[in-house]
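In the laboratory, one determines a bound structure by crystallizing the protein with its ligand and collecting diffraction data. In a computational setting the workflow is compressed into a single prediction: the sequence and the ligand go in, and a structural description comes out. We illustrate the idea with magnesium ion.
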Amino acid sequence: MALIVQKFGGSSVANAERVANVAGIVTDAYKEGNDVIVVVSAQGDTTDDLIAKANEINPNASKRELDMLLTAGEQMSIALLAMAIEKLGCPVVSLLGWQAGFRTSRTFGAARIERIKTERIQSELDKRKIVVVAGFQGLNKSDDLTTLGRGGSDTSAVAIAAALHADRCQIFTDVTGVFTADPRKVSGARKLEEINYDEMLELATLGAQVLNHRSVEMAKKYSVELEVLSSLVRESGTIVKEAVKMEKMIIRGVTKDTDVAQISVVGMKDIPGNAFKMFSKLAAKKINIDVILQSIGRDGTKDISFTCSKDHAAAAVELLEEMFSVQGAKVTCNTSVAKVSAVGAGMQTHSGTASKMFGALYEAGINISMISTSEITISVLIEKELADQAVSAVHKAFFEQ
Ligand code: ASP
Ligand code: MG
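The predicted complex, in structure-token form:
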């Protein structure tokens, strides 16, 4: 007998038929003699719909009240799934995050799981019940409900698997695993059998939509092996773990991220301290910066460009205008850009990966405006409209030749 954690995303429980399908998967695992904990997200677009409802009433609502509202989405889906499991004749109990022992930091809308008091879940498992837990939520030290940030129920599942030393943690979604590129857009995309945590983390951060990046960080930290698989097609998925089989693959995946704004401060004075001032002020406002580019100075001036998420663009522009207009600098913001990245641990031991990627883009006639690299990633900033074409071209260069 094993302890299995199964997580189902919003699309897997979007309607009555899908909820019944999930109940079937869960009870099959239970009937094989396993202990089963199920973590679910809100149905379909429920979370988006709740946010829209809040905006209708008060676009500046406090984050506390927003969390109070959003946690309701998962409350609905755990009850509905538990009812579907009851119908199949298996003992089941649904638990909200706080009932399942999720204790979090204070920050509404982006709380961190601090610990899980596992007594309640354990006692329900001891009674041979299937335990259905609301993902994405917990309780902070003031006894207020919190949410973990969008896509947070993956993290809830990994946290339970870590806390209870589960034998398996399965993340069910609407695709059959982790692919080398988005299979809906790139015809030659293929499913990976295995991928390591670092590669998965990069892919998740750079726009692959299968796992929330914080869940991957947590899985790595606690060595929780994950299986990403489909709730609709029963076939084996992708395993995410530390060491993976050596395949002859330099690159594991190509992604695009369109939530990018490119901000430039043009013509600031070429004096020491400007970069420091700029990025420390941005950091103080919690604006996360990604790619940075500084031009060589000319006529006593220089330019600095960087990227951040679109959400932060307006605040960044305002701040920089305040800081640098006295130096005669201009601030520009371009939101029609996208970041296309190639990820793979294999590039550490193979040379020529970057040139191959740039060559593919050149042949496709795509201009690169910024480049950044890390040990296992090469990213380029390009025009947003060309992003899909760029992903296909880069994917083809690495996988289809
Ligand atoms: N329902 C939440 C969201 O849509 C959490 C999740 O899906 O993981 O962000
Ligand atoms: Mg969701």
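The mean pLDDT is 95. Keep in mind that any predicted model is a hypothesis to be tested, not a measurement.
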